[in-house]
Write a structure and sequence with these properties.
There is one protein chain. This protein has 21 helices and 34 strands. It is α/β, with parallel strands linked by helices. Strand 4, helix 4 and strand 5 form a beta-alpha-beta unit. It comes from Streptomyces hokutonensis. This is Phosphoribosyltransferase. One of its GO terms (molecular function) is glycosyltransferase activity. Pfam families: PELOTA_1 (PF15608), PRTase_2 (PF15609), StiP (PF11202), TRSP (PF12500).
């Protein structure tokens, strides 16, 4: 409440006159802040914010607007890229709502606030002390431990920045665990002395990080000598004179009308201290007075299922979207519970639960014809003095009602009594909906004719079983253990193979999904093996060039320390090669995992959970061998979107990095030419002896990784490491060419055109297939058709040379015709037999055979 509303009397003048305290700095400081006194051995005076929504009832639009605007300023300071990598941390209890609003202003940053409420089963990710507070211990309890583990900017939000000790303690604790390059401190007011400002700069230099400061106003508090002792004496005198008498005045003091412009209802003439006395509406423990008004009316908000009630365990942009969608209906339910003639309505939040009540109040403000204000209860004891020049006019005292970890104690609501509210809506979380809540409700009922209670479900993170560590060679796969970790479960002992014809018929009839079984592993003939080795020898240099180029793009555009996550299994050899290039060229030891993605079923969500728990999602780069028509590209984007909505974890970039992008589906690639990648010629024997991935409900539970088999018995035919070594051996000779190619690609317009998808749709119609899933474009996909499915025919671009030797051989062995096409955007396209049954025939009239 600013001075104009308060008839020109600053709400800090009472303290300033008696203790000689001065606010120096920006002229708006006295609009933003008032002063009060409290019983505290370290600091008697209290800066009381008029726009925080804690002690002083204020328009929710003003409260939210200050935080949201500060968030905009942070976003402008960081820029779009850094904002996407940022995490916002607010301080309990006073800044939990402010921090939320700042995160909303940044728009793309997840939010976490510290808490003084331990939650069983949730591990502590950090903690720190607030030296001048009456309750010092702050806990950090993120549901997703990776929330604080990233390297992006950490934005720390508090209502005031006084000595800087709290921020230093926070940074010191977190920087030791999760070092980062940049911090941003946000506050409504920066009230540090010059010496304190210097300490922060010295600390930033000491840890080697940049620290920025964003505040709505700045200044300092000038304290005369002996102010602590004088303040303590003043508090003791006023408390002894009037507080704690238990008297509930029947009429409001005339001075209160300036702060709360409403019809006056009480008169404090009975107060022994008169109009400038201490006003404490205290509920003595064990002496609960009966409410003077009607019983509180409960409203079922229908809070969205599994939506966090705040940032205690993390609140993501996806959570924010869900809340925005639900707010209008919830506010409408509150409005229905209010009396029709209500002109002044107050929303009262509950200690750390500031954001949900604030958003409800702001939404209600838009739809009712009444003045709506907002504040919250607090555990902070502050002296109440009824004087226009004092920030805390009245105090309601009641027992704690959420079974606090530090035991029972008093809690407070300020400036509610005597404010003339027609209705007060108390918003608490279900943890605070206890029999002790009657204390607060009874106090409110004594000062307003209508009390409404809305309970928000307390969010407690579920604790799924711990995910296992990745499988590694030689126990699982023929790759060295450091080359790749498989986020899969080993199904080697399960019989999953089925004859090709049976699988095809079941898949096309809708009786089974292709990921529920495995094709019989193709064992190449001696002639085919010779083709593979010839192709590898001829293509190794070309492959090395593409590997180097795509890796350089990733390092330049995605992350300097990427986490490579290959899509098993075709992407895994490419992921290993990219890891080897980063090590060869830059000395980097990049993490590399292989995960399962299934068309129509999405990516393995448990694998994403593992990655989010161990790495910054923003560093994850998904890797595949090649693109065909781009189905997996679209599948991954949809799956990541669904995962963000279900788990609230953001940061994963669905843009795939591929060796070859003939379909023009991605912007991160080594080449867009459709050429033979020898790893496509074989199945498990060039992919670490690992099968395709399997997703079947009787084998893969809700907390399991997808499955795969390790074909140990094929070790004699395994060329997986030989393939990798042959390509990596060419790295030195292509190193200069990679530099040139990467520079060209970085400067080029690589926007996907989806040319391949359009071609597949055209071919599907021209050949009467009418199903794009049965059209497999490109050398790699065509090879898969011949090795795993029932092929109908092969379309080959006229003039295609050695890149198709192995395709022609496989087609000949299976009796599949190869049709040359003059204009084809791919080197070849494989067509799966449409509407296949085991009695189907090929284009030549012969039965299709394996």
């Amino acid at each position: 409440m600013n001075k104009a509303v308060n008839n020109g009397v600053w709400s800090g003048s009472w303290v300033a006159e008696r203790l000689g305290v001065e606010l120096l700095g920006d002229p708006e400081l006295t609009d933003l802040l008032g002063l009060a006194l409290r019983r505290n051995p370290k600091r008697a005076h209290l800066l009381v914010s008029n726009v925080l929504g804690k002690h002083v009832p204020q328009s929710p639009s003003i409260v939210y607007g200050y935080g949201f605007t500060l968030g905009h300023r942070v976003r402008d300071l960081l820029g779009p890229d850094e904002s996407r990598r940022a995490v916002v941390l607010g301080y309990a209890e006073t800044a939990t709502g402010l921090g939320h609003a700042v995160a909303d202003g940044i728009a793309v940053a997840p939010y976490l606030h510290s808490t003084r409420r331990p939650v069983p089963g949730v591990a502590t990710a950090g903690g720190f002390e607030e030296a001048h507070s009456h309750a010092t211990s702050h806990l950090l309890l993120p549901e997703n431990p990776a929330l604080l583990a990233g390297e992006g900017p950490l934005v720390l939000v508090d209502d005031e920045f006084s000595t800087g000790n709290t921020v230093l303690n926070t940074i010191r604790d977190l920087h030791g665990r999760y070092p980062r390059d940049r911090y941003v401190v946000v506050a409504l007011v920066d009230m540090r002395s010059a010496a304190d400002a210097g300490r922060l700069e010295e600390f930033a230099a000491e840890i080697g990080a940049r620290v920025d400061l964003v505040a709505a106003a700045s200044g300092t508090v000038r304290l005369p000598a002996g102010v602590l002792e004088k303040g303590q004496e003043l508090v003791a005198r006023y408390e002894a004179g009037g507080a704690g008498t238990g008297r509930v005045p029947s009429a409001a003091p005339s001075g209160l009308a300036a702060q709360f412009p409403a019809p006056l209802k009480t008169d404090l003439s009975a107060n022994p201290l008169g109009a400038r006395g201490s006003v404490d509406m205290r509920l003595r423990r064990g002496a609960r007075p009966a409410p003077t008004g009607p019983q509180p009316k409960r409203v079922d908000l229908r809070w969205p299922h599994n939506l966090p009630d705040g940032g205690r365990h993390g609140f993501t942009p996806a959570h924010r979207i869900r809340l925005e969608r639900a707010l209008p209906a919830m506010a409408a339910r509150l409005a229905e519970a209010l009396p029709e003639d209500a002109h002044r309505v107050h929303i009262l939040g509950f200690e750390e639960l500031m954001y949900a009540p604030l958003r409800l109040a702001r939404e209600l403000e838009q739809i009712v014809d009444a003045d709506v204000t907002y504040s919250t209860t607090t555990r902070s004891p502050v002296l109440a003095v009824d004087d226009p020049g004092y920030a805390i006019r009245t105090r309601l005292t009641f027992p704690a009602h959420d079974t606090p970890a530090d035991g029972p104690g008093d809690r407070y609501a300020y400036n509610i009594a005597g404010a003339g509210f027609d209705a007060v809506v108390a918003v608490v979380d279900s943890r605070g909906d206890t029999p002790e809540l009657h204390g607060l409700l009874a106090e409110l009922a004594a000062h307003t004719p209508h009390v409404v209670l809305a309970v928000v479900p307390s969010y407690v993170p579920e604790r799924p079983p711990m995910l296992p560590e990745p499988l590694r060679g030689p126990a699982f796969s023929s790759y060295a253990p450091e080359e790749v970790g498989w986020l899969l479960q080993d199904l080697s002992d399960v019989t999953l193979e089925a004859p090709t014809e049976e699988r095809e018929e079941a898949i096309q009839s809708g009786g089974a999904h292709y990921a529920e079984s495995l094709p019989v592993e193709y064992q190449p003939s001696e002639q085919y093996q010779e083709l593979f080795h010839t192709a590898l020898d001829e293509a190794a240099g070309r492959l090395a060039l593409a590997v180097g180029a795509v890796t350089e793009l990733v390092l330049a555009e995605r992350s300097p320390h990427p986490v490579l996550v290959s899509l098993a299994r075709a992407g895994t050899p490419v992921g290993v090669l990219m890891r080897r290039w980063a090590q060869y060229r830059h000395g980097l030891d990049l993490p590399h995992y292989a995960v399962s993605i299934v068309r129509g079923r999405g990516i393995d969500a448990n694998a994403l959970r593992y990655l989010a728990a161990h790495h910054d999602p923003a560093d994850v780069v998904f890797v595949d061998g090649w693109t065909g028509k781009g189905a997996i590209t679209r599948e991954l984007a949809d799956a990541i979107r669904e995962f963000e909505e279900s788990d609230g974890v953001t940061g994963f970039d669905p843009e795939i990095a591929v060796l070859a992008d003939p379909g023009s589906c991605v912007k991160t690639y080594g080449t867009r030419e459709d050429f033979l990648i020898p790893s496509a010629c074989l199945n498990s024997t060039v992919s670490g002896l690992i099968s395709r991935t399997v997703l079947r409900s009787d084998l893969v539970g809700p907390h399991d990784f997808h499955g795969a088999k390790f074909y140990r018995e094929l070790a004699g035919a395994d060329v997986s490491v030989e393939f990798l070594d042959a390509v990596a051996a060419r790295f030195p000779e292509v190193s200069d060419a990679v530099t040139v190619l990467a520079k060209e690609l970085l400067a080029a317009d690589r926007t996907p055109t989806w040319e391949g998808w359009a071609a597949v749709e055209r071919i599907s119609e021209e050949y009467g297939i009418h199903d794009v899933n049965l059209v497999k474009p490109g050398v790699g996909e065509t090879t898969r058709v011949l090795l795993r499915r029932v092929p109908w025919k092969i379309l080959a671009r006229a003039g295609a040379g050695a890149d198709l030797d192995h395709v022609r051989l496989l087609a000949e062995q299976r009796g599949v015709p190869v049709e040359e096409v003059a204009e084809l955007p791919y080197t070849c396209v494989g067509l799966i037999h449409p509407k296949y049954t085991r009695g189907a025939t090929g284009a030549d009239g012969k039965a299709v055979a394996v």
